[in-house]
Amino acid sequence: MPWLKSYVIAAIAFALLVVPIRANADELPEFTAAEFNDMFNTANLENLAPIGPAPSITGSVSTDARIREIAEGRGYVRRPLPNGALVWVRGQLLQPSAADAWIALRDAAGDAGYTLALQSAYRSHSDQRVVFLRRLYSYTDSAINTRLRTAAAPGYSKHHTGYAIDITQSGYRFTSFQYSPAYKWLSANNFANAKRFGWIPSYPPGAASQGPEPEAWELTYVGLDNIYCYGFSATAGDTFCDDRDSVFQPDIEWLVGEEITSGCDAGGDRFCPDEPVSRGQFAAFLHRALGDTLATDREPIGFADTTESLFAGDIAWLSATGVTNGCRPGSFCPDDPVTRGQLAGFFVRAFGYTEGAGADIFVDDDPSVFANQIDALATAGVTRGCNPPDNDRFCPEQPVTREQMAAFLHRAING
């Protein structure tokens, strides 16, 4: 596959990944065994290709069809393969986010006194074929069903996705992992210690029609967003399922109350707080926030690159107010992320902050063309810096995230 060529690059990039937020175990929702299974089936997971034709298992069309029939009768479902680069972790391949989360889980277990070892991760169809056929002693229905109790047929393994791992504790065979102290720690309180790093049991005890019998040693990564968002129902003051760990949640809820945002997905239950804000999205945020409070007496610039943008009207409004002249002559670059420095420039023009009235507040903005606007933003109390608690840096070249945008707008409008 072409994406195999990317492993080396991906392995280097892995060192730059950010460790996932450790959720408070007491605040994590609890799930039944059936819900754990359904969660992986319905999770919003990246880097997965559409499911293609069923792979060969035995070389016999009729035998393969019977194996699939029995497998699906047990509850097995077809699984997608990765659509891009995986990363190496201790000789195993994983999706980048799952690799990062495995390291975090392993380290947390170590801190608690348990040594977790990674036994298996991504498996191709051919890898799974070897696993499945190794102990399939005949092609009778009874033999097939017996093998399916402990191994998925090729095409049906969660390991195909790159989001599943087999683990154990040092000194225990992985088939006896369920009796280990590490498993007790991992599975306590509805798998709280697994969930807080985005992991859930692949085949939990108590679930019916899930494919194999329960496998204590296998976990699947879904991420905290999918854990929080599964079965989520909005309530007053908790509109989105993915912002509970955000320090800016009150600012995000303020955006909702002011009808400045309805979320980042069609269902309206996610805000995507960590995603960068594009220039087009920024125009929409500002347009909804300020509406008719800014004069639009300037002829809008006819940007050549905004005609197909969802935010074309918001960008035209932003131009008519004089807040923007674009990213370069004749262009607005609607899909580019807004940097923190650029936001300072936009805000100074939109809110009329006085440049040069305050002190040189941050140590890293002098080379920026937006240095004066950044100081004006700080003097107005709209920004506190980017490196709490010191907050002596502004990080002008970093992209503005959606949660940061919420805070900037809230402070600018409410003072």
What does this structure look like?
The chain is an alpha+beta fold and 415 residues long. The chain contains 14 helices and six strands. It has helices spanning 7-14, 33-42, 61-74, 96-111, 125-134, 141-148, 181-195, 223-229, 249-257, 279-290, 312-320, 340-351, 371-379, 402-414, and strands at residues 87-89, 92-94, 116-120, 164-169, 199-203, 215-221. A hairpin with a 2-residue loop joins strand 1 and strand 2 (92-94). Helix 3 crosses helix 6 (141-148), helix 9 (249-257) packs across helix 14 (402-414) and helix 12 (340-351) crosses helix 13. The longest helix is centred in the first third of the chain and has 16 residues, at 96-111. The protein is elongated and about 80 Å long.
List keywords for this structure.
6 strands; alpha+beta; 2 domains; four-stranded antiparallel beta sheet; Muramoyl-pentapeptide Carboxypeptidase, domain 2; two-stranded antiparallel ribbon; 37% helix
Summed up:
Helix content is 37%, strand content 7%. It contains 14 helices and 6 strands.
DSSP helix count? 14
The domain tally reads: 2
In CATH, the topology of the largest domain is named Muramoyl-pentapeptide Carboxypeptidase, domain 2
Shape: elongated
Q: Name the structural class.
A: alpha+beta
